[in-house]
Amino acid sequence: MCDWKPFRRLLAVALVCAAQALAGASTAYGQRLSAEPVFVLNAPFHTGFVLHLAVTPDQRQVITAGLDKTIRIWDALTGQLLRRYFLPLRDAGDGRINALSLSPDGERLAVAGGLFGFGEGKAVVVVSLADGRILHSLSGFKQSPRTVSWSKNGGLLAVGMDGREGPSRIHVFETATWKRVFDDRDVIGRVDAIEFRGDGVFFATTNNGRIDSEVFLYRPVETSYTRVARKSLGRKSAFRAAWATDETHLYVGGHSRLGGDDLSVLAWPDSGGRPPAAEGFSVMRESPEGGRVYAAFRGRTADSGKLRRYGDWSLRAYDEIVVADGRVTDLAVLRGGQVVYVSQDGAVAAIGPDFKPLWRHAAPTPWLRGAPQRMKLSGDERWITLPLPSDAKDSEIAFNLYEPRFERPSNVAQTWREPLTARPGVQLRHWQGSFRGTVNGNDLPRIHGREMALSATVHSSEPALLYGSSSGRLRKVSAEGKLIWARALAAEVTAVQLLEPAGLVVAASEDGFLRVIRWADGVTVMSYYLQPGERKWIAVSNGGYYESGVGAEDLAGWIVNRDASQMADFYPLSRFRERLLLPGVVNSALEARDGTQGVERALEARAAATTGKRPDSGARIDAMRQAQSAQRAESTLTERRETAGGDEAEAVDDAPAFQPLGPAADQLPPAIDVISPGLTATVSEPRLTLKLRLRTPAADPVTAITTRVMSSTQVTRGLPATPVGAEQTLIVDLPPEDAMVQIVATNRWGSSVPVVVRVRYAGKSAAAAQGRRVLHLLAIGVSDYDNPRYRLGLAAKDARDFGRLLEGQRGGLYDTVEATVLTDKAAGKAAVEKALADLRDKVGPRDTTFVFLAGHGINDEAGEYLYLPKEADLSRLRDTGISFRLLREILASLPGRTLLFVDTCHAGNALGNLRAGLSRDNTSAINGLASAENNIIVFASSTGAQESVEDATWGNGAFTKALVEGLRGSADFNKRGRVTYKQLDAYVADRVEELTRGRQTPVTPVLVTVPDFVLAETGR
């Protein structure tokens, strides 16, 4: 241990300026922020590398950040995502976060990486964890900050840079004035770990690809630091390192123990002759109380790894658990023995004190890294195959590029072929997972020495090929190794295929994107984001027009920068459904081999079906043409090679493959800031006082505020709000229990993204809430239509059987069940609309409402989805159908919990050949109902226009059969005598797919604002 006095002198200035630091002084920066919306992914979980995690001092929350540009805060016990932040961005290539560190007081989060919007060069940004305010930035770095670390008292922040294999930097800043107090330039390679101990001493480690890793030790001297030791490890892996609990030594990379004062090599105590290096550890941590050692193993594949818990440093006796992540990048051990970890592919997970899985979240995107041949192409070149997660029943799934949907490959009558990687005249060598790829003996073009080729395909007749790399580049290269064009895809390009007759390229990247690009010039035609395991997809054109699968509209959207002191606002695609949803745009674009022409054709088709007038292309189409022309002109990659010495040269960005136009900045829904108490609160009385700031375009004031209180006993909607102003106070009554308060603001452009405040009730316990618990059931099914051509087999019976089952819940979970069942001749338009309207007068805040619809549904020429009652007439849909808009308005207004079960995609041939403009695809209607602001839980029998399957031997349609089985007890996986809505969702999805052999795929859009709750008691 070193003397504490020099460290005190170093922090003197910081202590004098402490008041300024606590006030959160902000730097004037941000002149480089984008004035236009920037397109981003918004998956529920990370979609790219996550290298670090942090845990709050109370150990109730876990913080992660990654290359997907998000900062996420999770509940450590349950894994629930509590908050997600986007930093303000310069453009679509900005915002990749390499590192994070939480200050010891838990108030300030430092994040670092490829952050360009805060001045010249790259940046470290300091964020208020409570409200997302950006307190400070350190910009101007030529290298990418790779790791950051706070000193134990928060007075210093150390930053390590990514020098790849060349010169690097280590900087130390005092956090009161942000003055740089130390700078070590004599470092080679990527600085992957820095950590302070209590007396101010800190270490740094480098992790280098081709040279030995090193460890550096620094001691405070006066107002700066001096290096006191430097140690080469004789190996190339020092990815993670940490102080032991008593800070007398540190351990590096799971293989070395070094003295804390001089980096002397220490023996592992009583290790039995087997050094830890032989075990293959990737990360090691000691328990907070000391003694126990936790280690992660690097698996051979991304979905295969192990964690061990050793009784002591002898590493003899241990507990072991197999985990679904083979590339653990960081872990933390909490008081009490819980372990949280993150992995290279973005998984965030927890292991309980009993050393059993507690929770895990990972993006269900296709993992093609190391297996590009798994993206096969169908003989008609309209389908591709993708791998499914290892725990799925099937090993792969097929996706239709032209008419987006998922299918089992066995249900697609096609032959399949892998990418062509060799033919006479074009010979690829060492291209997969190698730094040394060649074509016909010529090196493949690269940005730097550590860029690997991951995927490739050769044209069957032209002397050219495509290859994707670890730096996110897709390149077209001649047989002589000359670059023809290159595109930046923002994530590792893991698989490529050629649609030769169409002149198109399909490229998959590790973030879940699939892009269709023109072979001739590299211009993007269409981009998809896919979650095959969840059967979710979105397809977005460069103009921002899109199509979407059920429950997928919120997986992407645009962020809008406010200023450099605030997190950016995020607007999902669902906020622009009325303006930018364009059915048919995918097929039109691919058939035209041109994204702009595809949009124009789809707009014309929609106008012809509704008004008969050709649409005005307008400014958006003009902007699409300009962007496409600019991308076509950028036909080659401009780059600078790394220099032999000095600063690392940064590669100039090549033309991005995907940059869809966003909404106009003056045509946005409102946004809500919670000024106090923040997004979490503790109250001792059943009342919450909120201070809000509403932001909306100047010409479009907020027209309404809706609040909704959700707890374990009730859901109350439409609470009164105070008059709208720039800043206002809202008082919300709560039940005497933990609850969530959801706030939604509306202007003429639509509804805001709901803001949720989670409230912990710490007051006196109240007596059980009085009043009956009522289940309101409305079940409607039509088989016997007035028009005999529309008749179905089991829709009416499905409604009766569902109603009979739920009526059996009377006297159990529900004191009473008020059921209305309308089938066949009783299910006329007037009767159905009256039954829906009656719900408004009946439902209370403690009630639950089930609405079940079975029969035909159809979109009219304007895209309006209608349920067909018994007298329906396709020639008079508006007069004889029941609009889903009406259904949404009524159900969204109900207090209590509301569930809708939709089975309206029955045999299309019963309706005959539909005239132009009509379709059975219910996707838009289901997405509208399931939007977060409505809080309606929707169970849909199938995706899109996929038909619902019936079989007389089942006695019901597949969907209803699965619902009835699940509610009777089959979905009670834990055998607790009750079924929750999430259990029912899981059971129905699996059971229907099993019954129909993959021909029907039910979907339930996930509402993160609605906690799981019990639907029914079993055995009734």
UniProtKB/TrEMBL annotation:
Biased composition (Basic and acidic residues): 613-623
Alphabetically ordered keywords of this record: Repeat, Signal, WD repeat
Statement: the UniProt record of this protein carries the keyword Cell cycle: no
One BP term from GO: proteolysis
Highest taxon of source: Bacteria
Signal peptide start and end residues: 1-23
SUPFAM superfamilies tied to this protein: Caspase-like, DPP6 N-terminal domain-like, Quinoprotein alcohol dehydrogenase-like
Segments of this protein annotated with the region Disordered: 606-648
GO MF, one annotated term: cysteine-type endopeptidase activity
Ranges where the Peptidase C14 caspase domain occurs: 778-1003
Identification of the protein by name: Caspase family protein
